[in-house]
Amino acid sequence: MGTRIGFRARSLPALITLALLLSSCSMAGVLAGDGESGTIALSIGGAGAKTLLPDIDMTPASFDISGRGPGARSFTRTTALTSLVIPGLVFGSWTVTVDVRNLAGTLIAQGSSTISVQTGLQTPLTIVPVPLAGAGKISLAVTWVAADVQSASIDAQLTPATGSPIALAFVLSAGSAACQNSTIPSGYYTLSLKLLDNGVLVMGAVEVVRIAKGATTSGTFDFSRVNNPGGAIAVAITPQMSNPLVVTMQGQAATLPVGSSMTVTASVAGSVGNVVYVWYVNGESRATGSNANPSFTVGSTLPSGFYRLDVTAYTSDGKRAGAANTLSQVL
User: Fold this and answer.
1) How far is CA 327 from CA 193, 218, 252, in A?
2) Residue 83 and residue 181 in one domain
3) pLDDT per residue over 5-29, tens digit each?
4) Which domain does 227 fall in, by range?
5) 106 with 156, same domain?
């Protein structure tokens, strides 16, 4: 049975909308001698979704807002509210920056934009903070019954929505393997993990994971049941995941006669636009589909044994992802 541990967080960005409400009043103190001033009214909103995430809380808890304007004027504010009015600003060009922090005070996202404050006008400014770019860590462990695998090796990689796959190196010992890599760029990936015996695939799994800057994404896979020439075995790998896309399957069967096939259709709850589906059998990529072709037919060429069918789903922008799987026995 394969399981995952250590994923805990929520996703970002938070959308911060700044409406600049301008007035023609004279201000004292910071604005003495300027004659006119402006006011920034901030409206702060957020949207979050659960997924297989690292060990860092990605829920916005507070917003550090700073601005720099004409003549080295500046302001700073910290708020947990969804709206904030900042009065007494001189007219001219202002650069506003938002740092998003979680409940522990850890910086989790940033965004900034520049706008010109003009007399008598109300000018909207939209800032979209995004998760911090940078490297995070992945920590993986794989276990199996040592007596069931003669010469073990692990073939694993992380594949982003766009770009080249990242190969993962494992250190092997009797009945187990471990991987530690702290140079993975932040973002979503498909993790493909295969256990080989003398170069022959005996079990595999596919998961969607997320990497965040400075955090660790952990997972443990227990391959206590593997396919081997000695006979049939029961393989049950049940991922437990929480992700932005809720993926479901229809048409799968628990058992299939040799030579028969089943057509499985994937779907994603809600309106998320175009979705790219990738189908895997026991960890090996077999087909790619989309909203127009979300189905996959499997089984007619498979010998007797146990087969895990995985499907991953990514939105077209690669910012949301999810997965589903089923286990079938060919008799």
Assistant:
1) 17, 24, 9
2) no
3) 333 333 444 444 444 433 333 333 3
4) 133-237
5) no
